[in-house]
């Protein structure tokens, strides 16, 4: 579904993403793990065609994110970190607007379907500014799902949520993945989140990919007695000690 | 086109849900209505005063009666020139100052740009939305004014006068759009809505007050010089310097055109519309340039951001 090849982004002498290469298969929930400012958001921004890579390429379902950016954008759903939507408009008005921009046919019907799936139907005529952070995230996910995307990019979707809200978003992502086999690319720095829902992970630090593999393989490689947290810190530690090992199969 | 219209319709919806914008737009409407009322009442008072004088002179047996003052119907609406120049520009600023900066603050710009739309479609949509709101406001003002004008002043306007009034509103539209475009440009360039608003207020003050006053002070300076040197008839009051300063103020240009169109300048009150436009060609060009410049700047800046 997603093929990334030597993807790099430079900003005035600073390399935010450095020579990234990996693949994400169809129907996977891929956790893109890294500390703050590791390069996760820059990577996702290039994948959803918000910014152009300095070099390298990425393909979604065989379409290049730069050359075929309109096609790529029509098949992806995206929820950036800390998005507030249009707070003066109702949930329905927000969804109608984003649905129209995505070229969804019979938007009204589709909004009702998505809101029903997300258990937000009774809130559709409420202004977004009256929503809690968790509800806003659900509407944010709803807007990303309207056009039935093949891949969903979520940037820290549980950031700032209470445990209840975090669990509810996690359950929702599993539900989406199970119901429509939607590939999910999840940017996060929460290991617990990755452990609970991801089938494969990539670890990025200082713009470089340190490791990418399925969770099962990682467990095998590092010993099943080790927790994901231990593994993460060991890999990060290796990089900080100057051992630029890239763990992958 | 469908996506542009979706963006435009969202802009319109958001504008009408924004209390600050609604308050300024309402103020604009009320003041324009008030201007018709005041203008009509003043003209009626002038006519009554003239009739009283005529009656008095007649009762005293005077044979020479002063000519009836010439009343140009559109001049009744002259106050609207100032309201458009000052409040109209503020309405446009309120409409546009946060159009991009707020999208950035709220993160919605990322949602928009991750949709299958081109960047210029986003600008076009916002522009259409803003233009629709401004045009709607001006059309309501025009209809109200024509209605009130007929009811309060008891005068009717002929086709030529209606054409002048319509062309005045076209220029008023462009003048307000220029401020909207400037706000759009500033909003594109700034990350913060408060900063964008403050910057637009400074630009508005500069363009609407500082530059015209600078030009005016230059005229006064020459006037004093002329008086001292007794060359009143040799040196024009409007110096090249003050005219050059005025070029940088669309407000001055709009007022010049507006005064001619609304028959405020008696010498130009009965000229044909075409002659009038020809006469004001320079002001029209100076009015058009800043808006076009801002439009080009907005496209250029936003399209470059995508690279």
TrEMBL record, chain B:
GO terms for cellular component: plasma membrane. It holds the Pfam family ABC2_membrane_2. The chain crosses the membrane at residues 20-38, 80-100, 127-153, 165-188, 195-215, 284-303. Keywords: Membrane, Transmembrane, Transmembrane helix. One of its GO terms (molecular function) is ABC-type transporter activity. Signal peptide: none annotated. This is ABC-2 type transport system permease protein.
């Amino acid at each position: 579904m997603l093929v990334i090849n030597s993807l790099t982004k430079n900003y005035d002498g600073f390399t935010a993403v450095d020579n990234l290469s990996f693949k994400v298969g169809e129907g996977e929930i891929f956790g893109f793990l890294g500390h703050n400012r590791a390069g996760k958001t820059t990577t996702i921004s290039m994948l959803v065609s918000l910014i152009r890579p300095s070099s390298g390429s990425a393909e979604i379902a065989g379409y290049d994110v730069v050359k075929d950016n309109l096609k790529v954008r029509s098949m992806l759903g995206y929820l950036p970190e800390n998005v507030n939507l249009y707070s003066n408009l109702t949930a329905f008005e927000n969804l109608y607007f984003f649905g129209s921009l995505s070229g969804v046919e019979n938007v009204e019907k589709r909004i009702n379907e998505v809101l029903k799936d997300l258990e937000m139907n009774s809130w559709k005529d409420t202004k977004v500014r009256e929503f809690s952070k968790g509800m806003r995230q659900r509407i944010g996910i709803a807007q990303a799902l309207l056009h039935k995307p093949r891949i969903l990019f979520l940037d820290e979707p549980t950031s700032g949520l209470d445990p209840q809200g975090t669990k509810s978003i996690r359950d929702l992502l599993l539900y989406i993945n199970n119901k429509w086999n939607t590939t999910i690319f999840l940017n996060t720095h929460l290991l617990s989140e990755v452990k609970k829902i991801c089938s494969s992970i990539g670890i990025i630090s200082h713009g470089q990919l340190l490791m990418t593999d399925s969770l099962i393989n990682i467990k095998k490689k590092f010993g099943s007695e080790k927790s994901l947290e231990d593994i993460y810190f060991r890999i990060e530690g290796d990089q900080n000690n100057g051992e630029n090992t890239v763990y992958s199969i | 086109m469908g996506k542009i219209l979706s963006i435009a319709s969202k802009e319109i919806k958001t504008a009408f849900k924004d209390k600050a914008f609604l308050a300024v737009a309402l103020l604009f409407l009320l003041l324009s209505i008030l201007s018709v009322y005041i203008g009509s009442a003043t003209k009626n008072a002038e006519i009554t005063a003239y009739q009283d004088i005529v009656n008095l002179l007649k009762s005293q047996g005077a044979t020479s009666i002063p000519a009836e003052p010439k009343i140009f119907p559109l001049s009744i609406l002259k106050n609207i020139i100032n309201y458009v120049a000052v409040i109209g520009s503020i309405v446009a600023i309120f409409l546009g100052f946060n159009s991009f900066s707020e999208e950035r603050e709220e993160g919605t710009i990322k949602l928009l740009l991750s949709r299958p739309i081109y960047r210029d479609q986003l600008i076009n949509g916002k522009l259409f939305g803003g233009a629709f709101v401004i045009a709607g406001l001006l059309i309501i003002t025009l209809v109200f004014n024509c209605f009130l004008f007929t009811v309060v002043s008891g005068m009717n306007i002929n086709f030529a006068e209606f054409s002048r009034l319509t062309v005045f509103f076209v220029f008023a539209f462009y003048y307000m759009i220029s401020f909207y475009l400037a706000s759009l440009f500033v909003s594109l360039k700034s990350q913060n809505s408060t900063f964008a608003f403050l910057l637009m207020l400074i630009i508005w003050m500069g363009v609407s007050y500082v530059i015209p006053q600078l030009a005016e002070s230059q005229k006064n300076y020459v006037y004093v010089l002329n008086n001292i040197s007794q060359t009143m008839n040799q040196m024009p009051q409007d110096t090249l310097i003050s005219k050059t300063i005025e070029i940088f103020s669309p407000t001055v240009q709009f007022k010049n055109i507006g005064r001619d169109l609304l028959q405020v300048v008696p010498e130009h009150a009965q000229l044909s519309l075409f002659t009038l436009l020809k006469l004001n060609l320079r002001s029209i060009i100076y009015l058009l340039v800043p808006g076009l410049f801002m439009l080009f700047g907005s496209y250029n800046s936003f399209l470059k951001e995508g690279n």
